[in-house]
Amino acid sequence: MEIDENNEELFEHFSFSADKGQEPIRVDKFLMNRIENATRNKIQKAAKSGYIFSNNIPIKQNYRVKPGDNVKVMFHHPPHEHLIVGEKMDIDIVYEDSDLMVVNKPPNQVVHPGHGNYSGTLLNGLIYHNENLPENSDGRPGLVHRIDKDTSGLLVVAKSEIALTKLAEQFFHKKIERKYLAIVWGVPNPSKDTINKNLSRDKKNRMIMSVPDEDKIGKRAVTHYKVVEDYGYVSLIECQLETGRTHQIRAHMKYIGHPIFNDIRYGGDKILKGTIFNKYKQFVENCFKVLPRQALHAKTLGFVHPIKNKKMVFEIEVPDDFNSCLEKWKKYSKNI
Fold it and tell me: In sequence order, which ranges of the chain are alpha helices (DSSP H)?
């Protein structure tokens, strides 16, 4: 918390630390690369109003961010994500008892409120369903983990403090079983392998993760994959997470040259394998329309029940858009 020149309270909305290798860059450009939906005009207005700080000192829009700087954006109101309102919505609850829920998140739904998404999130629905969910360390009720907006599949939600603590411990100690299905461009070789490469924010595009040039940079990330079906130009793979970094599967698959099909942020929305014929191009574009998101689905979730102390494993089928795209490739591959 900071106090402005009029002795009024300010609330932190964003905080970023510049990398050691950060070249001096104007703060408006620095923040545009890190805050979704932010415009230069909005950032400059915030700077003029004294809402942007570097190392706890107010700065102007022409300030150049240097290595090690801590840049914060502060406003007089709390972040909207901390003002979560329950909303009535249909939630696909796979399992529920007095301590936890396992839900099947549909594609195109954000898990929790954040910049640009303050309503319609899964958490808004969960709070309506149960208004007494315990808060995690980020102040988000019930959430032990999350999956990306355009990824479908299973999530566990804690309903009691003890369940939240014990499930969080299982995630921390990597005892949670998580398997995903993905359609990727090409066919990984070898067909079964482990990707053990650190991940950090990409230097050029802060909205994505990438494998850094130096092994010591970033956080450890381990993905085990195997090819389930070979469709020639694409393949269906299963990934098992050992760690749970942001965009881990998406970044790792791009790193080994097999981006997830129709993953816009990681380059999978372009034709990366196949022929040059217009008929093939039309086929792929139709697949993109059928599955207008990255082809990634959280299929399996296993953990030890925090109270009953017994192993529980849940599996959920891929949603219709994923399945329709898969069927198209199955038919097409027979004619390759």
Answer: 27-32, 40-48, 122-129, 161-172, 248-255, 278-290, 320-333
Active-site residue set: 148
Q: Considering just the CA atoms, what is the radius of gyration of the chain in Å?
A: 22
Residue 141 neighbours by CB under 8 Å, 6+ apart: 84, 123, 126, 127, 133, 134, 135
Cis peptide before 190 (omega within 30 of 0): yes
Let me know: does 234 contact 184? Beta carbons within 8 Å.
Answer: yes
- 128 vs 89, 90, 114, 131, CA distance in Å? 8, 11, 18, 6
Q: Count how many Cα atoms sit within 13 Å of the Cα of residue 324 in the half-sphere of its side chain.
A: 13
* pLDDT category of residue 6 using cuts at 50, 70 and 90: low
Render pLDDT for 148-173 as a digit per residue (tens, 0 to 9): 999 999 999 999 999 999 999 999 99
User: CA 324 to CA 291: how far, in whole Å?
Assistant: 8
Start-end of H helices in 199-298: 248-255, 278-290
Amino acid at 55: N
Q: What is the DSSP letter of 112?
A: S
- Domains of the chain in start order, with CATH, are 2-78 (3.10.290.10), 81-172 (3.30.2350.10), 177-333 (3.30.2350.10)
Question: 């315990």: which residue's tokens?
Answer: 134
